[in-house]
Amino acid sequence: MKLSGELLRKGTHIGALIIPAMFLVFPRNVSVWIIAIGALVSLTQDILRIYNKKFRKFIYNFWGNIYRRWEIRRLGGASYILCAAVVSIFFFKQNIAALVMIYTSVGDTFAVFIGTYFGKNTIYSHRNSDGSFRKKTIEGTSAFFISALLAGFLVPDVPVLWNFIGAALATAIECFSFFIDDNFTVPIVTGVVLQLALYGQFMPYRWFL
Predict the structure, then answer these.
(1) 205 within a domain of the structure (yes/no)
(2) 209 lies in a domain?
(3) Residue 206 lies inside a defined structural domain of this protein
(4) How do residues 23-50 score in pLDDT, each as one tens digit?
(5) What three-state secondary structure class fits 126?
């Protein structure tokens, strides 16, 4: 993907910070439905893009550079983020849901830019299904951890130690997510660990009550 596309993509990641802000400000029932509608719209767009030639042409003419090569026939990052947000706010306490979405949005953005411009020490290089390669570097991975840790301090009622553990876990998951998009695995796996560690149980939103 060209740099302009990567800039646009990471701009949407930063824009996704509205999700954790919503989790912390709005009542849970409001957040659940807003994010669920957003996820449904994004999934519908992706499905049409994948299976409908005319719609695919329209989307790529409009903002095709935002998609990476291996996403041409797969769901885009926005759908994974929004689906992860739905699962997070549905099952996790609001501060945990906000925390893991901040890790994803902030950490991934800094990891890409630092890794792209300053990454010299490769951890590994992974071949994608389309034949392209993704490279993980020490510099990019360190940027993910540091930025996620610092941003995590903005979330209330999260002990410093568990913010540190959460940021470290999110970093490891992001670094080694091979087969499932890290926009989904980072918040879900990290959220499960933090939710159980801090509260001992899941807290599903009871929409039917």
Answers:
(1) no
(2) no
(3) no
(4) 999 999 899 999 999 999 999 999 998 8
(5) strand
